[in-house]
């Protein structure tokens, strides 16, 4: 598998500083950055980021989601059109900061046709030495051009909840093995999400409808026949979302891990480790420290959604990255911090 040379995303015009910092850093690292936007947003993005290749999507999701999001299907269509057949497509959320170049990894060791998935670490600032590992969402995907040509993401969009759950499940459905991105670290400056309960619920149903449409046996089997008003919030998360997240975690826990070439001996020592703390409840001190916003759904479903969380704290050190999990310090690369 080749290392990606292009990054595809959907930039929010005149978005927050954290997004500008991330996109500028991609460009500084030498990546060709492409953004897919609606006609109403494309010109503003082009003016703000003159070094970004901006592609106009013929439609947007304003009438569905209340914002001019780019549909995942449209992003993939444009990415396929731009990318050569022998090059992978790389999708990254527009506010993710890469702590290093992707081409420093052992891409040659990844089986042909695999899909690479990366999770982020939430930090208070980009210079912060500590962060919280976020294993209930996915922010970077690298996969062969054409891998998802035969599937449909329905009305799911970049920026809408659960599109990042659908993508790895659909890759697996199409026969592509999943590989966990161990390096570089993906940094994300933490911010509160503002999804309404209505958007979250509609997104959960659309996500499950997309899985059923594409033959993925995860979630509520009759989701397309159930009205939103007929299912409680707890059933929505337990029956539609949690089984899918567990399925992704299971796939990643059994996958290989993509690491730097100079750490080849440790490639198999770092595996994706989803939290086994399903059912844990957040403490008052953790809530006071801001961990109640660990997952964007938590503020709406506090008792249920915290069970999705991984309480692993991650210390980010450029010379030696160490992870603290259940009180046990594991150093990556054999260098003691």
Description:
The protein is built from 9 helices and 15 strands. The protein is an alpha/beta fold and about 325 residues long. The protein has 2 domains: about 5-190, Spore Coat Polysaccharide Biosynthesis Protein SpsA, Chain A; about 195-305, no CATH class. The strands form 3 sheets. A 7-stranded mixed β-sheet has the order 5-11-7-8-13-14-15. It starts with 5 loop residues before the first strand and ends in a 6-residue tail after the last strand.
Keyword list:
337 residues; alpha/beta; Spore Coat Polysaccharide Biosynthesis Protein SpsA, Chain A; 5-stranded mixed beta sheet; 15 strands; disordered C terminus
Q: Please work out how many helical segments DSSP would assign.
A: 9
Structural class of the secondary structure composition?
A: alpha/beta
Beta-strand content: 15-25%
Mean pLDDT: 74
Please bin the fraction of helical residues: 25-40%
CATH architecture of the largest domain: Alpha-Beta Complex
Report on the biggest sheet.
7 strands, mixed
- Quick one: CATH class of the largest domain? Alpha Beta
The beta-strand count equals 15
